[in-house]
Each structure stands twice: as C-alpha cells, then as structure tokens.
Amino acid sequence: MAFVLKKSSKACQVTLLQSSATFEYQKRSGKHVLVDIPYSHMLAAEVVGPTCTEVYSSRSYSVTLHYVKSLSNNRLRVSSLEVQSDFDKCTNLAKQLEEQMTVTERPKRLVVIINPNSGKKRAEKVFKTKVQPVFSLCGIHSTVIVTSAPKEASELLQTLDLADVDGVVTVGGDGLYYEVMNGLLLRTQKDHGVNADDPEAEIIPTDIPIGIIPAGSGDWVVQYLHGTRDVITSALHVVLGKTSLTNAVSVHQGGKLSAYAGLVLGFGLQGDIMNDCEKFRWMGPSRYSVVPVSTVLSRQAFDVEVEYQDDVTGDVKRISDQMYGVDTYIISKGEQGDKLVPVFGDSALSVYMSSKCSLGKHVQQLSDLKENKAGCSLSISRLSACGYDMPFVLALIKLWL
Ligand SMILES: Nc1ncnc2c1ncn2[C@@H]1O[C@H](COP(=O)(O)OP(=O)(O)OP(=O)(O)O)[C@@H](O)[C@H]1O
C-alpha cells in the first residue's frame, strides 16, 4: 500500500511493507532520502489539523510519526517524522500505521512504584521528567505509587487489584526490583494456593512483567538487561513491550521461605559486603566503592561444603574446603571469548567459590570477576547446599527487554 503526501513542499511517498514503512522524499538540496521504520519501533502516529490562524489549504493537515531510534552504547531515543496532506490522507495513513503498531502486544495499564530514597533521591523527578512523557505519548495509563518505607511495595502487591494491569514498573535500584519481584511471586503463590514455605513446591511464575527504570545506586539488573542505565532507553523498552525471561530462586532456611533472589545469592564475603554497604547508605552510591575494601580486609574463611549437579554431565558433585564465599549468580554469567556476559533465564546458574588463599590472590580473583574476565566459574543446574540447609528452586519471571 502506498500514499503520496508532502514533506516540506516536496512529494513524499509512504509505502507500507510487511514489517516496516518507508518514507521516500527529496530534500530541498535535491538529495534523495529513504527512511525505513520497522512497525516494531513505532510509538504513535498523531494527526494535527490547521490552527484557526492558518489559512486552510489542501495540505494543511499533518501526520507526525514518533518512533524509536537506536544510538551508540545501546541507547534508544524518540525520533519523529512529519508529512503533510489533506484530512483524509493523513487520518488514513495514521490509522494504517497505528494498526500495524498494535500487532505486537504493548502495555496499556501500568503500576509504577517509585522509591523516592533510591540512589541520589531523584527517582520521582526522573519519572516525571523523562518517563511520564514517553508513557503519555504511547497512551499508557499509569497508577503511580511512591513508597514511604522499605517493604511497603511488596506488602501492597499482596492486595492490589492486578486484574487489568499489564505490568509493574519500578523506579529505583536493584533493591526495589528485588522487593517487587518478591511481592509479585508471593502474590502469585497465594493466588494459586501454593505454600511458598515448602522448598519442594514448584514456584508458579508470575504473568505480570516487571519493567525497571534505573534510579538506584547499582542498577545492575537493568545494565545487564539493556547494556546501559540510561533512563529513556529503559522507558522505551517498557513501551515497546518485548519481554525476556529471567530466573528467580527461592531460598529456604529452617522450613521457611527466606526470600526469592533475582541477582546474586552471596554466602560469606559477598553477603557481608552487601550487609556492610547497607549500614553506610548515608554515603550514597559511593558506598559501593569504599565499604567493600574494609570488608575484604577483614575477610573470614568458613568450612563449607557445596553439593551441586553438574550442568554438562548431570553428575552430583561435592566440594569441601575452607572458603571466604560462595556466590551464585541468578542472572548467570556465560563465557564469550575472554569475557563474562549476563545470561537471562538460563537453565543453569553460575557459582563462584573463593577458597582460602593469600589476600593478593583473593583481591585478584575479585577484580577479575568485577571486570567480567572469563574462566573462574562453575556452571551448575542445581545447587543444593552450602554448609546450611538452603535448597534452591528455580522459576522464570518476565522482564521488559
Ligand atoms: N520510601 C522508602 N524509604 C526508604 N527505603 C525504601 C523506600 N522504599 C523502598 N525502600 C527500600 O530501599 C532499598 C533500596 O532501594 P533501591 O534499590 O531502590 O535503591 P539503592 O539501594 O540506592 O539502589 P541499588 O539497589 O541499585 O544499589 C530497597 O530494599 C527498598 O526496600
């Protein structure tokens, strides 16, 4: 299907192809331009009529197509293209484009949960100035909840009416994502009559996707997911509606569910680092650079036994040693050349163990891991114990990709 409209007084041919629309026109300089925009990247087509001060002419209507453009470093931005014609042509073109956009399922009703105390305490401003305009452009209705205390988000999700909700968006850091993921999973178990405390019970995955707008201190989940912590990029990933599966792992101790983990499960040093960082929250994001140094200097080795099922052979193996830490990456890390890259929704988890060694060697191992150097992980399909009774159960939940 093709339409001929105008762009800056010159003819512009718009052709609707199977998966994209092309716009072909000449610039004032005479240069020929062809813009090919996939339907999957289109956000909205707006028709604007003549203002009352304009003299009506045969082409005083316009269609502005808003779409997503890729920039360097995995960032996305909104771009627009305007063509002019009469009322019939403009409304017809806009209707055809809107129809193509709705072929892929996109969210229309969202619950947005903001932690005003995340990171540099700019989450509310970030949402209002950068995210809300993108949601409005795409006709998304959002119910905004600003938390006033820790755990409020997960408690609220136990009773909130989620029947018509297409997704929950967090504006904060990894901690808020963790809270919302826990809240949604617990709600899903309750709704299905599953006893979440039972370590043998299969976790029922939640149908409601989670979107993450980075406004925290670490923002690791979103960086792994989108390759950037750019706010507008995250908002655009949400509105385009494509989801990715990620793992959640339940951790049980003493016959009770401790929590669902979604990023790293750190036993020993890593857990101590996170615990110490929380005590220095007043330092803001810089606590993650300073506090770990003192925690590593006061490291302690434990007698640990790790039993796991090998990802490749399926054999159950056991390692006993004095270790500083056993870290399980729920968002696994796969090897790509000499680098470690995040892998979402993998059937295996990666485990890193730090056996007793000199401080120099230990620091080297930790910095290799921080720089994502390949070669220091074990890939396991099930980790059953690490010194304590901590069986893990895997589930998959959806994130907007
Ligand atoms: N209104 C609030 N006041 C204080 N703490 C809150 C509030 N709402 C949520 N929290 C808690 O704050 C913790 C940290 O929040 P969040 O992850 O958003 O920020 P961050 O710690 O700065 O970022 P990151 O987790 O990426 O380092 C979460 O565990 C959450 O439970």
Automatic annotation (TrEMBL):
It comes from Batillaria attramentaria. It comes from the Eukaryota. InterPro entries: ATP-NAD_kinase_N, Diacylglycerol_kinase_cat_dom, Lipid_Phosphate_FormReg, NAD/diacylglycerol_kinase_sf. Gene3D superfamilies: 2.60.200.40, Probable inorganic polyphosphate/atp-NAD kinase, domain 1 (3.40.50.10330). It holds the Pfam family DAGK_cat. Residues 105-255 form the DAGKc domain. PANTHER family: CERAMIDE KINASE, ISOFORM A, SPHINGOSINE KINASE. This is DAGKc domain-containing protein.
